[in-house]
Batch of 4 targets.
Target 1
Amino acid sequence: MIQRVKVTYIFLLILLPICIILGTSLGAFNIEFKQCTNIFLDLFGADNYSDFTKSQSNVLLYIRLHRVFLSMMIGAALAVSGAGLQGLFRNPLADAGLIGISAGAMLAASIAIILGLQFTSGILGYYSISVATFIGAISTTIVVFRLSKSNKTTNVATMLLGGIAINALAGAVTGFIIYLSDDDQLRDITFWSLGSLGGADWEKVIALIPLIILPIIMIAHLAKKLDVFALGESDAICLGVNVNALKRKLVVWVTITVGACVAVAGMIGFIGLLIPHITRLLVGPKHRNLIWISAILGALVLSIADLLCRLIVAPAELPIGILTAILGTPLFLVLLIQQKRRANG
Amino acid sequence: MVEVNGISFDIGRATILSKVNARFKHGEVSAIIGPNGAGKSTLVKCIAGTIRPTEGCIEFDGENINRISLEKLAIKRGYLNQQFNLSVGYTVKEVVSMGRFPHYKVYPSKEDNEIVTSVMKLVDISYLSDRNTHTLSGGELQRVHFARTLAQVWPSSNEKGIEDKILILDEPVNNLDPQYQHFILRLAKDFAKNYNVCVIVVLHDLNLVAQYSDCSILMKGGEIICSGKTREVLTEELLEEIYKVPISIIENENHFNIITGIKYNQLKKELIK
């Protein structure tokens, strides 16, 4: 198994730069692979690699590269959050939607769009939808987490039920807002809910770095405790785990990072659910490997998905949520059937 | 010594335990027996610290367990639960290794790994090492979790001040065949003697209680009916009154056995016929 883990790490880490080159060279505007590597080499100060035009280098560095970075960071964050939450709920079918993050974000984004926040030139200006979404995601999760608390302990089952209730409520209010919206706003809301990495720019990438890297490291720190948590709460307590602190920390970091992702890219489904699942099949359930390999795999998968979004209907692009769901659903069903077969056999 | 001082436990209006007092010594196996719903599991949960009594306190060697940190408690006492519900399928070795969790920070030490290996050998599950726990039979799973709990309290270096361990087993012979029932209890008894461990075990099989426990506590309706040396506590009259079945005790210097469901005299008569 250790051998297998190593091979997986090496294989995925080799794929990572390949994905960056693919993601930056393919698209509506033609850049050859060789030119693409040359642009990178040139960027890092190497001489004699200048068989590319200025516009090719500009497209690569100012239109595509940050988009690839953004997709990788968001993919990693969503996958790690999924892995963490599946550990917390002790259920491989959990994801960030369960604790109200997506529903809260959706509600906040709809309100922001209908109020025309993106056109106002306040302090936040162009970023107001993102900020509103982030706040929306965090506040619903706080409500869900509060609901599940009694006598200083957090009941995971109540958290799940609370999440479902808050999801339903937020969904209803979102529905009401859609009812009030005009055609343009409706279109904006719909597209937002399908997710897109189209709005990527370097500012967003830089703003996201701490909101993604730090939570991933913090969630990875909880890996050992999440392993013991799989034994059940009372066994985890007996093995010295402060289960309430574990739950609190995990929910806080997941909410921050998923909230940030949703704020930048809208709703991107299935990554948080599927990637940890596939990783578990590859390297087993131990959380240290599960979390780090999920991060790399999530980055790979989302960057490839984004590439396909740009290519399939080029020069237009598909919302990425459509692609992750179309690719993810059959894969997920195959996994489920496989798992069932294995359990029976 | 484990001291239970006047603990009560209520769920809503139902009283599960009422003002229970008990003492458990190191180096001995103490059995807790009694009919279903007597409060045995609740009592051991309180001792293990997974639930807090509504009243009273538990002391380990004179120290209130509420004042002992979770990390230190995890090294001092192991608790084998009645239910196992691993959410995902870890391998047997991974599960047993979880017992050493409180002893290291990021990676297990060489000693931790050695303890895991030797405990697996001791409990006779080495051959299952790489099996997924979801594919095990009930008895195998029971032994895996017993091994995990044993690994947790297995003495190792760097444990100043927490040498005297406590091992709490809630029905450890569930799902086990007679061979392993005796095997596991013999192991627990030797562990108590050799390492001065206080072993507290909830058991239903009176014959096993008679053979392996030094002391016994008989419970009914959330109260302790009788406690003391096993041979003194377990009498035919008392057990028949509690369990409402015929019970025979066969006793001499070397043997102490209990047969349930038939009276010895009647059995002898029928055998002679």
Target 2
Amino acid sequence: MDVGTALIAQSHRVDLSLSTAIVWALWLFVGFAGVFPGIVAYMVWLERKVAARFQDRIGPNRVGPFGLLQPIADAIKLIIKESIVPRPADGLIHLIAPVLVLVSAFLSLAVVPFAVGLAPIDPPSGLVYLIAVSSVGPLGIFLAGWSSRNKYSLLGAMRAVAQLVSYEIPQVLSTIPVALWAGSLSLVTIFDHQATFGWNAFNPPGFLAFVIFLIAGAAEVNRTPFDIPEAESEIIAGYHTEYSGMRFGLFFLAEYLSVFVVGCVATVLFLGGGAPLPFSAFPRNLIDGSLGGLVAANAILLTVFLLKVLLFIFVMFWVRATLPRMRIDRLMNFAWKYLVPLCLLNILLAAAWFEVVVRPGRVVASRWATGMIVLGMLTAGAVQLVFRVNRRLAAAAPIDADWPTVGSRAARAGR
Amino acid sequence: MVAYNYVFVGLLLLLAIGFALAPLALVALVAPRKKSPTKAEVYECGVRTHGETWVRFRVQYYIYAIMFVVFDVETVFLYPWAAAYGSLGWFALVEMTAFLALLFAGLAYAWAKGVLRWA
């Protein structure tokens, strides 16, 4: 399991030595001076290009070649715009709210193992840290909506809290199988575990957990089809209606950074981190103590990691371009009546997978095949069960009892 | 020392706050500031805002928040079990199945009571 133990990220305890300090300083400098703003800026550009293609347009193409300088133009525009704060608003909280949202997204990045030496810290409770830090975001969103003293903002904030809070449960529950298999909450250990036992998304309970994590992750970052907190056609812009100029820009930054963070976390937990091949120690067997081997291994890991995150981000854009917004009652139903029971069942399936495959300590082909077939059927059965029960319960209730204004069954049949 | 982990988190926190505040400071220097009473009005589609905004809100949101707290706390109990599962043996699995059944019973009760109905 301990292929690349040499570096700081591999040990739970960090000695505050000079080399640690240098790595931290480098990570922070490179991150804040170039990588994070760059990633966010070009994600925006990419989204506009991708969305444009989906809608048979060209997208930004005026500023620089292929519109590549568009993010810079946007940034300048945001900076020279006036920040308008409404008179009745709570000024201080109005200022703090976007900062909180952005900080929450940044803090999650501290535990992500981009490559062998590139997780600055590896606390033994990494997953708990991740959840704790990422739940500060909804707080900022709520404060933004509340402090604006605008009714649309308040509606957006209330919707945001209801949605984020509901989807946080399946998101957290879907990470439990991963922790169970790795026997640890540390993201680096989870990453190492997948080098031996294959990527977590590629076994039946893991796949279910991965899908649930993706859905809940999309809901956590308020992206279509889960964008009811900022539904433009209903409540202006939801919680950031009263934000203009750079303060709005911070929300924008935070949204894209959160998408990136969710992509990183999904990659580490379910897609084997930066490993290009499942069931293989490559490229970490390149690490032989020499600097060249370390650099080569990390370069491969980092590249593959970023490609996987890019794929994830593209899927988010794709979903956004494809699906319409969900109605709030269906949205809440989906979290509580489908995802939460599925997650609870999935924990038991994950324990079964552990007994069949992980218990011997290495991959045995026959046990792995048995696990894939038996648990594949059980997982499919669990999904069937939850959907069937829900359909039956919904059929027993009058149609759209949750939404009385839609009309009676007779009226609908007549149409 | 494990605690040194959080030195980095502290540094990251400070830099992230700085990263968020720096453009705001720049805006304070560069951006125009022209106050007008109309501009400082709350934007509600051009209609003058009517009545108090900070009102008591519908109770449904509160009920979901309570459900969240219950489930979130119970989820945190699941983590140590999951991390230690390999060394715990069968009895832990039986116990956790019972715990999950209790969790599910709670959800089913809320469901049957109509708490999950958005109306």
Target 3
Amino acid sequence: MPSRLVKGVRGIGHRVVNSLWRLGVASRFFVLILLHSGSSFRRFHLVIKELFSTGVLSLIIILVSGLFVGMVLGMQGYDTLQRYGSEEALGVMVALSLVRELGPVVAALLFASRAGSAITAEIGLMKATEQLSAMEMMAVNPIASVVAPRFWAGVISMPLLAAMFSAMGVFGGYLVGVKLIGVDEGSFWSQMQNAVDFQQDIVNGIFKSFVFGVAVTAIALFEGYDAPPTAEGVSGATTRTVVTSSLAILALDFMLTAFMFRGEG
Amino acid sequence: MERTTIDLWVGLFVLLGLGAILVLALKVGNLGGVNMSDSYSVTASFSNIGGLKARAPVKSAGVVVGRVSAVHFDGERHEAVATFKLDKQYSFSKDTSASIMTSGLLGEQYIALETGGDSAQLKDGDKIKITQSAVVLESLIGQFLYNKAADGGEVK
């Protein structure tokens, strides 16, 4: 009986130590990326190549979802606001919710599943087919030549994608609110411009998406680099990337929002 | 894919992203200016403008005919001066009256114009003489309470 108890406690300890160890490896990996990112700026075409696959190829999904999220916000917002006779505030509602929250968060979630999973699968497969070991054999540091360019490409493209998402969403809200439902166009824009502050709302939103970009790309890269070199290992790593980075985005969003918008009306 | 093609696409992507930030700053945020083609500018002073802001609509008979372009305080006469632009296609008589109204109970405030009988028309830079200030809800409630108290006193 006591031996079973000891086994149980040992199992818990094993798991805790394992996850702490993994966290430590991930942190060391992150520091290594930062240390080796000098070469990716010296050879910037590597970053540009990755910008194409993470940024440009994510454009369609970001723009289309932004448009639809904005249109739905326009409809739902109008439905609620007109009960209080303040449908002119539709522009404020659409713009603030997009610029502050939905733009960075939804764009980052889409980015995690569109680009993050691709990064993990690519690096995991590189590892499984021993391309990374081959690079090491040739005295090429795989972190400097494969991992760091992908990291910076993700960090650069995330704020741009979030800004496009928000802009597209505001346009979608305008289409539905003003063109379809018939809210006064001037009130829509004027109230929006009165309420949305550049420093407080737009810059903070961009900063949020920058943090999400760092988190999502780092998680995706680590999961790929850490994946067991088998087919199952790579598929499991891809799944973990999407799950972990989505949770990380939501948790970081809560923390950043608590710091940025605390105590405001 | 060709290196140049990739460069082109990435360049477009970055430009599009920066453009989106610019649009957010100018069109959505408060860094933009006001532009309205073919309009003339008229001022009116009010003793209280309530919550009227720049870019609020100017309506006549409920139809939007212009926009408020600026609101400032006249330090000498202690009045608020609202400058607004009216669409060129609408003309108003010189004795038009301007009043500040609220759309809905708690909605946005706007300037309502009611045209008079003068045959001369308002021109660019003119000042509207007959104005009516915004109704401040608190003073209205205060007045109501005061009247109620006065009525109560009479009954006794």
Target 4
Amino acid sequence: MSRRVVITGQGAINALGNSATATMQAMAEGRCGIGTLEIRDAARLQIGIAGQVKGYDEAAHFGRSELVLYDRFTQFALLAAREAMDQSGLNVGASDPTRTGVVLGTSGGGLQTQDENYRLVYEEGKNRVHPFVVPRLMNNAATSHVSMTHGAQGPSFTVATACASSNHAMGLAFHLIRSGMVDSMITGGSESMLVFGGIKAWEGLRVMSKDGCRPFSATRNGMVQGEGAAVFVFEELEHARARGANIIAEVIGFAMSSDASDIVMPSRDGAARAIAGALKDAKLNPSDVGYINAHGTGTAANDKTECGAVRDVYGAAADDLMMSSTKSMHGHLIGGTGAVELLACIMAVRDGIIAPTIGYEEPDPECDLDIVPNVAREAKVEVAVSNAFAFGGMNAVIALRRAP
Amino acid sequence: MAENVKEKIVEIIAEQAVLQPSDVTMDATLEELGVDSLGLVEAIFAIEEAFDIQVPFNANDPSESDFDVSNIGAIIKAVETLVAAKG
């Protein structure tokens, strides 16, 4: 009999709250975490809004010797991992520590560190930077620090597939446990791209909204960036049961695909292949799925392509399921987004609450699914699926079921 | 000045379309010239750099931006307006 994988811990920090519970609470209330972007030189940016983590004091969470090594994206990952591990009660060192690994997603890695230090050498003309710039900015820094903090000695790496990074990371963590390579994984994703250079780069692409994220609404005009992290403890079912762990949900399927077509324009076929693959991996029929957490970026191209792909795969069942984009509330966390969005899937299967797509104003005939407009809904959902479709055409879809 | 704007824009579009400037006619659409959405975003960046202007263009909905890209003539006219407004 094949090994089953469950979630025994969850943690988060993002514009909606400083814990997984606070994030879910905000999602259930349909609260918007998007507000004025407060960063250095914001006046030189055309984009003035973001889903920023406000009122955050790094010194309240970490000591000086830690902070010299932790970029903001690493701090977010560590805080989310700490919460997830506390909740899970998993003690990596209690048995074989090589049977626990860490796989996290991020797109940009230590961008705060890069931005600050480029300023120092290019703008201020300094000829010397702090000795830890490299270990702070590297993409695997968050994964490494989570591994060190919790003593996880098993397979550990960072996945960078832009907006699908977290889903790829969590999917691979699921596969590592299911295959028998490990018994538990700390997994999710983190991003902190709200820096002058990061936003300036996105502005160049002209897909950012200046006034809000309105996925699936005919009035949508682009994405809004967010920041933060979510981290989970994935564990083999019998392993979790043996230590009496509380089981939050079960991970039942995962698939990936590549569009192999365009570097920025999404492909309906590529998205559909990933969705269909995840259903097949989870041995699901389309009608088994009650909720989809959409990629739903709020761009013209993504939202209609995604709705088309969902129709292609789910067929008639597409009219019976609910699909929402929580990016309307927390913004697009790029490499961390799938992890925060998994919380909406957990809330659906565990609590029976469907997070809404807020900011919805007008129907778009090309997005004619039940996108749970503006207000959360109560519904009994057995299975939830989370979509992620990245720039570069890399797609990753993960499926959850209510805890066994 | 007007002739310069036209010439420069034709040059920018021709480069994106991999055509000779003489092939870029005023009533041609970007689609006809084979300039896709990414090419358009790049062309607008080149226009902003060339004329030191800010072009109000959102790739999410080109038709609803305050910048007419329906054909080459329209783009030139829109840029001329922006250049004039700059003073």
